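User: Hi! I'm working on a homework problem where we have to compare a predicted structure to a textbook description. Could you give me the structure for the chain below?
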Amino acid sequence: MIKSHANQPTLSIVIPIYREGSHLEVLLSRIMDILVPTKESFELILVDDGSPDNTWKIIEKESKKYPMLRALKLSRNFGKESAISAGLKVANGNAVVVMDGDLQHPPELIPEMLKLWRGSKADVIEAVKVKRSKESFFNKIGARLFYASLKRLSGYDLTNLTDFKLMDSRVVKAWLQMGERNLFFRGMSAWLGFEHLKIPFEVPGRASGKSTMSISRLVRLALTAITSFSSLPLHLVTIAGVMFFLFSIFLAAQTIYMKLSGFAVSGFTTVILLQLIIGSLLMITLGIVGEYIARIYEEVKRRPRYVIAQTIDRNYNISKNT
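Assistant: Happy to help. Predicted structure tokens:
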């Protein structure tokens, strides 16, 4: 657990890092250039999500330049959501900013977020994309389909929202009380409620390299989001079953009528089509139920969200396992 500290910073900045070594120095330099002149007390919390490159060595080097830098190295790649969770757990600020480490979340917005947080009753200041950076056609379509599906299934409209947000410390505390292992940071933040304000921004290009979020990871995240925030797919299975039951009654009545009237025709086309339709429906149904069972299985094991292998922390004492 975090021990209390007399010099509690106003702001904590949590940045999950994975293979960001090539531009990490640029990122930290920009943040310093923006925040140091504001005279705000702040801490930087970098969470290395098991990067296989030289990211941790660069973090160690940069920590000698910036005394306010704290860092966690996870024992392996647990995923961005778990890395964010690790950073939030050790954050000490009265407000916490979560942002990506690829410079697609411009640090220049942080002072404006702080100003809105202080000058309003809002507990969460969210950065909303008004213009997406260059991305493939399939990624755009996939994002729209995901947000539309999530809105219709769960009622939460996360369209163009990002992980780039400022949260009051009481919101962070409430977020950490949510005990699930299947994490969806954006959705969990929306579920908490509180007062929200939105700030628009245009997404710039990546500082270097390309996104490490593969299609398979995005699909897994989408499945986690939908199954974590909506049970409607299970109800749809029930609805489909009722519809097929009514259809079967109609078909049975028609078959009996045709038989009694002497117009019955022997044939395999209808039977084969019905078997294919019913078989497909059963497989899809089992798949949907299986997704929910898999989530239950992962939750009941109660494994930790992440494991911390190393820390860089000059001023605070934190636990090494969470």
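For your comparison, note the following. The CA atoms of residues 146 and 222 lie 7 Å apart. The longest strand covers residues 124-131. Good luck with the assignment!
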